[in-house]
Amino acid sequence: MQTDLPPFDPKDFLKTVPHKPGVYRMLSKDGKILYVGKAKDLKNRLSSYFRGTPTHSRIFAMVKQICNVEIAITNTEAEALLLESNLIKQHSPRYNILLKDGKGYPYIHVTAGEFPRIEFYRGSRKQPGQYFGPYPSVGAVRQTMHLMKKLFKARQCEDSYFANRSRPCLEYQIKRCSGPCVGLIEKQDYDQSIRHAVQFLQGRTQEAIDELVQKMGSAADTLNFEKAAEYRDLIESLRHISQQQYVSGSNGNVDVVAICVGSGLACVQVFTVRNGNNLGNRNFFPKLPDEEVSTPDILGSFLAQYYLNHDVPGEILVSETPDEPEVLADMLTLKQGRKVVIRQPQRGERSKWVELAQRNAEQALQMQVLSRAGVQQRMFALQEALSLDGLPARMECFDISHTMGEATVASCVVFDLNGPVKAEYRRYNIEGIQPGDDYAAMHQALTRRFRRAVEQDGKLPDILFIDGGKGQVTQALDVLRELQVVGVNVIGVAKGEGRKPGLETLIIEQGTGRLALPEHSAALHLIQQIRDEAHRFAITGHRARRQKARTQSPLEQIEGLGAKRRQVLLQQFGGLKAIERASVEELAKVPSVSQALARKIYDFFNGDES
To answer: What pTM does this model have?
Structure first.
């Protein structure tokens, strides 16, 4: 029951929240939604609620009732805003009363007729023409329409105004309209502008962007840098503003189900899409059996049980094919009384929905692993596996990172009973050794760490993990012996065959013994987490040091990204900062940049490296 759950700890919760856009739901003790909010940066926004005493009485009263907070990551802030609106209208949370306006979502309407008009629209979509949206806010529609004036010069005036013009208006004079009212543009040319506008609204913006890139290049060639800067800003605005969540009116109702398995846990994320709009998500953590079970088995069992008590949509999108999908689809078809399709999309808009659900599942699993309850459970397992007298109050792990001996950096990460203690992480720039000598690098880093502890009577770890085999462990034991440090258990974490997770061997008993824990062991999962964190921290430090010593562009470090592609990227985005902020989808729209290369560029700037 929910009353058996540990009390909500804001500090513990905030450690697990990412710096990403998304939506958060604050829940009361009985599981009711108190408040729904959106954020450009979830961690920063949620931290503001628990920092000091809220000055607003409404916020203070709400924070006192919070017993849990759920989050949903989105691709952009615009998606978060629309999802927030959907959830508020669906659940009517008590503390969102000020956000309820009783109005429908805003749309952009391209009217029918000889010279179609592009207009702001809200209401029932009965008039002839094409509708695009819904948009997250009126401001987003106005901003998009303002941009469309510059790009396509399609009329936005009322029909009565249009029919009674005898000379062009101010919009034509400032080059925001092509003047169809007085015949200053041929109908076929105007129709072409409307087609381009519709492509833009459908998200097919690459043609418009390519044209702007050419104009920017021409302006730069003629030394008109001010105009080139305008085109650059317009390109960036076009990419940003054209980001919608889903196109209204897409076919049918869909559930998007993604699964992530790791650290002895499984997380299943279910997104509900109705009439093309994302209505929210839920996390599920099914209890796994002690023996090994495959991911398709877990997903198949979950789907069979979940839809016993939930409405079954006509289409279920999955991140990977469950066990016996045909049998499962037949069962759900029989239950619902109509055909149900289960499929794993490989491309198109639906594949993006699955990717978003997959990212949320991975994030939710990481939050569960890093939660206090999860860490302590694995701490007890580690105590049992290593036959320790008590729980280790402090653990440290060292790792070495370099590129062919260049810019060697050692990392030290610290974990306690509550998980990572990032304030005590340290990096050591290694100097004066033979390039590529990992043993000497480890010896130097450990000497610096423990000499300071001895001289300043500093903290000592109960367990010292070393990412490496017997040679690295020997270096650690030698350092501790030289500095006369006692009471520290040294354990090496040697990688298994093919560096596959779960096949690690532990070097114990002063380097003379070996211990292989089962792949599903909670103790092994904790050791892997600590080792991986040390590896990540070392790579980040190494990259920064290497880049500081080099004069070349960071783009030159990405394999497969040659000079021509780098030039095209910089032209398309207008600079390195915009490339760093771009999503995989935006990068893949650039000519000659494949989906795989776009993912590699994105991972390079966002720290996702193996």
So the answer is: 0.51
